[in-house]
Amino acid sequence: MSKPSFFQRSELTQVLWSFRREFITVGIFSMVANVLMLSPTLYMLQVYDRVMVSQSELTLLAMSLITLFLFGIMAFAEWMRSRLLVRTGVQLDTALGTRVFNASFESYLGQSSSGPARAFNDLIQIRQFITGNGIFAFFDAPWAPIYIAVLFFLHPMLGWLSIGFALVQMALAWFGHRRMVEPSEEAAKATSESSAYLQSKLRNAEVLESMGMVHNLHPHWADRHQKALALQSHAQSLTHRITAWSKFIRYAQQSLSLGAGALLVIDGQISPGAMIAANVLMTRALAPIDMMVGTWRAFIAARSAFDRLETLLRDYPERDAALSRVAPKGALTLRKVVASAPGRKTPILKGVSTTVAAGTVTVVLGPSGSGKSTLARTMVGIWPDVSGEVLLDGLPIESWDRTELGPYLGYLPQDIELFEGSIAENIARFGKVDSDKVIAAARSAGLHDMILRFPKGYDTPIGEAGGLLSGGQRQRIGLARAIYGDPVLVVLDEPNANLDDVGEAALVRTVQGLKEAGRTVLLVTHRPGILAVADRLLILRDGQVQADGPRDQVLAAMRATSAAAASPPGTAVAVQPA
Length: 578
Ligand SMILES: Nc1ncnc2c1ncn2[C@@H]1O[C@H](COP(=O)(O)OP(=O)(O)OP(=O)(O)O)[C@@H](O)[C@H]1O
What we know:
- This protein is of the alpha/beta class.
- The chain has 2 domains: 9-315, ABC transporter transmembrane region fold (Up-down Bundle); 332-566, Rossmann fold.
- It is built from 22 helices and 10 strands.
- The protein has helices at 5-8, 11-17, 20-36, 39-54, 57-109, 116-131, 133-140, 144-154, 156-203, 205-210, 214-266, 272-294, 296-315, 372-379, 402-405, 423-427, 435-444, 448-452, 462-466, 471-483, 501-516, 551-566, and strands at 332-339, 349-356, 361-365, 386-392, 395-396, 409-412, 489-493, 520-524, 536-541, 544-550.
- Strand 9 and strand 10 form a beta hairpin.
- Helix 6 packs across helix 13 and helix 9 (156-203) runs antiparallel to helix 11.
- The protein is elongated, with a radius of gyration of 35 Å.
- It starts with a helix and ends in a 12-residue tail after the last helix.
- The chain binds adenosine-5'-triphosphate.
- The site of adenosine-5'-triphosphate has 13 residues, from helix 14.
């Protein structure tokens, strides 16, 4: 079967296309169920027009048994199609789960989405729609013409009446769609913004409480909440209005079709059995349209979720798995790197070029806000908006497979985030815990003895240990995690920010150990104590390299510059970038 262009347009539609067999089977079951749905009508006709006239109990028994049998098949077909749809939903989730996880994670990293949870909600919404009542309406609607044809067969007037009601129902659905799409989407957006605001504030609950900020923040949240509430009630009142009209049409149809039937019976054009049967049949024919009106909101929500997910998967395509490489040595080269961020007029890094040879220790210094952390994040390849070249062993860092590169890379961010799990799992980066490596990393970070003092040692859950861990200890666990498994490139962003002298001495030893083992270390710091282990210094100022070269040379140049600054003009010694 050749793929229609709609299904070719995106990864998501292609995955849907791969379930075509399941949907065709659902269609076949729907056909069986819908055709058999005519059996109560036929039964009614037979009972009224034949059994009542002939008074034959045997015919009634035979008719009843046949009808029961047909009902059995109908129920089976209904059950099978529901089961199949539920299973398809689970398979769809399995087929897309990992992709959505990776893509939403990347988009979150790229600061272009509110978080991975949104994408998963979208996936759930799509799954629920295609396995819920909404989709049945789509499968049942095509059978409405059969019922209408039977109505025509009973009497053309009944046929036209049902077409009239179908058109009114469809017009209402269309009108509902036109009026409701925008308000519903706006309401959903405002609601998720308000809850995202609350979530972000809750994360800093301690700060809010300690400084009595809750009171001040409340109006900010209340504004957003009120806006969401107003939009929601507007959208809801629209829905209720449309539902009320839909009910009116349904009741009118039920009664008027009976009335029209009675008129035809009085005129002697149809039998009383046909009148009752037509009444049931018309309700049945219009049920899917009625259901569509009822599930319109779910359909709109699923459609928006579909669009969002389609965009997400398009913007973050699957990475090419073919790019597996040999183990890197840890040499880094930056060429004219410009790192930007949304909402900033000027870039954070403005054309940084430097070379970090494998097996060396480079310390990055610079005033607060000069771009040191941004440089560290750019070097590990996680800054989203970078131009220029960041090369690891001569190859663009973004071309490395992250899962493959991960074990070769150690990164300690400025804000250490430890994850739910044991200390050992955190140090082992949640991979398979290799006890020897965990202990080696903990020893290097000067943590081992401290961990042993915890009641459950390395198995102490971080949540439980959270209360026991000081800022410095958390930093050391982060450091142990960064050096776990002996990575070739270690980037440490202010690893000594929370350390005391003992901790700093342990850090110096760790860095020295890494250097002796031939590892490349890049260390961002404010404190001069660590300079002793540096081979090179890189000084940033306002996103540009102010000085870069062997440590002593840079220090000497800096001293000369400050001396020159104190001397009369014209005698300044320029800092020579190496
Ligand atoms: N995600 C971001 N979006 C916008 N601007 C950012 C972002 N991250 C950092 N910045 C800005 O970039 C500049 C450099 O930040 P960065 O954290 O790299 O500096 P730093 O030298 O590490 O500072 P510090 O020593 O205080 O940690 C700052 O002005 C900061 O406000």
